[in-house]
Amino acid sequence: DDESYLDRLNDRLMTELQLDGRVFPSNALVRGRNAIRSCIGSYRTEASHLQQLLDLTRELGARLHEDAPVP
Hints:
Elements: H1 2-20, E1 26-30, E2 33-37, H2 47-67
Antiparallel strand pairs: 1-2
């Protein structure tokens, strides 16, 4: 189903983001669903860092979705 596909996609996406080495999100369970989260712990974090996370997440997510086998 769609929810289990999205959970698997988010899990794979988080791993791919970490392996890429530019951003380091972590995972979370929100109401039993896989989610990607980021912790901002440095006062040096700027909007450009968050934009990089969003852009890379969209890019890799789209690529993983295109490469996913059709259920």
